[in-house]
Design brief:
By secondary structure, the protein is α/β, with parallel strands linked by helices. The chain contains 12 helices and 10 strands. The strands form 2 sheets. It has a 5-stranded parallel β-sheet with strand order 2-1-3-4-5, with helices on both faces. Helix 3 packs parallel to helix 4, helix 9 packs parallel to helix 10 and helix 10 runs antiparallel to helix 12. The protein starts with 23 loop residues before the first helix and ends in a 10-residue tail after the last strand.
Amino acid sequence: MGTQHGGIETEKTRKPFIPHKQTERERSKKYMEETKERILAVDDSPANLQLLAKILKREGYDVRISPSGALALSSARTQPPDLILLDIKMPDMDGFEVCEKIKNDRRLCDIPVIFISALHESLDKVKAFSLGGVDYITKPFSPEEAVARVRTHLQIKSLRNRLERQNAELNSVNVRLEAEMAERRRAEKEIIKYQNKLKRLYSEMTMIEERERSGIATELHDNIGQQLALLKIKLGAMKEIAYENEAADVYDDVYDLAQQAIHTARTLMFEISPVMLYELGFESTIEWLVEQFQEKYGIRIGLEKDNNVRPLEERSMFQLFRTVRELLMNIVKHSGAKNARVEIRRGEDDIRLRVEDDGAGFDVSEYKASFADNRRFGLFSIRERLSDLGGLVEIDSCPGKGTRIVVKAPLVFAEEKPHV
């Protein structure tokens, strides 16, 4: 028996469901509905409410009406409006009382309230404004005046809301910035702490290295140096005997070699560690260093020092000696100077070294901007070492006019050994 479908919808005849797509006009209309400014009109007169609703809806506002103060409060709490038009003379609860309750409600207190008063009624303006009213209009309504006042206070509210949002955003940005600045300051403190730690470690390693060098130099002096000196003496004694036979020339050569070996050993010992720095003191070692530079490099170096020979603390003495040696080496390598001068002055609290030359000079601003060449890096290294001592370096130079470098460091004396 065949099946008659008639008007019954089957799987084959059913049309597929296609979701409705909103048109641009529909979306715009929905947006306008959602963003319409909402006004709550409160008046015990239905005629007045209808008139107000007609006037304001024509201007595109979303208008709700309420015939009493109690209903108005309930409506406002359910869906807060953007503005309230509030009649003053109402039974049970007048407009002043309603306004007072609105302003005492944290959710509603920012809503602007415009009072409505009949022309023949006396309006206590002071009370209206003191309770939080922003304006008033009189009955019978002038549509243009009512719309103008409503529009003005809605614009003011919109601007205030925008300003509050911007202030909130600014406060949020400020909070983030303050947090970032606090984090940056914390990071900078950590970096400075680690830098100071690295400086201390570098200083300690430098002094450990110097002590090791001093120990090696002492060993060389006490053993190899003394042995070479003894060899020289023995050769000198043998030389007197050797002159009586043909071995004299050989002994002369051996004697010269021994003398050269002694000179080389002494030079090597000083390069490893200036032993005399600890034996003779700072000023005397600088005097010897100046003589060595003049002899080795042919540059005239003047030396001026005071008569205070009280021993300096080991670390300060070594770093200051190293500074003078590196400054003199810079002059020899980079300045092309014929004359130089070293000055040592001890004050009450500091020691000052001045090293100057009549060489090529350089642009100090370029030195501060870059450490690309060895001279600039050497000066930077000196500055860093001196800062670790609590000292500083002042550089005065100009291309073609020589260079003057002043080093200042705290005056720290070696501890006096207690008498036994």
